[in-house]
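S1.2 Input.
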Amino acid sequence: MGKRVVVVGVPGVGKTTVVGEAVRLLRGAGREAEVAVFGTFMLEEASKMGVGHRDDMRRLPIEAQRELQSRAAKMIARIPAEVVFVDTHAFIRTPSGLWPGLPRHVLEELQPHLFVVVEAAPDEILSRRSRDAGRRRDLVDARGVEEELSMTRAFIAAASVLTGAPTLTVMNREGRAGEAAQRIVEAIGGL
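S1.3 Output.
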């Protein structure tokens, strides 16, 4: 099994862009790297239940979400690449409260080698969210984004304790995703 690098960040932080840059850097160095967007795997399974949009999954009953998480984790764990980036969220906002994006059963399937928390300034995150018309996000202000960042750190700290995998935090400043990606590639080299 290859290395599993779980990359999390709040919506609009630019984690998908950073992951794409890290994959490009690794492939440029002759390494095999793939991206598994956890929500896409979940949506593939949820579509069998009649769910048509990824943002509607978080409104499903918790047990249905748990089952979707399990199925997605099992599929991702079978990806044979040297480095697999798991692009996901540390938590999901549901009508019942914050649901862990990486509960124990998911962590046991994925067996991560590294957690990466992608962060950015709250004003940058809000700006990016405003430009993403394809998503149905909850409206929050800068204070709400700061709370989301704080909760992400807390959820990932718990996941790190459960797995023993280290956690790296990188800043994705506007127009500088390559720098964050380079830091991630350097960390992978040390695993």
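S1.4 Remarks. The chain has a mean pLDDT of 92.
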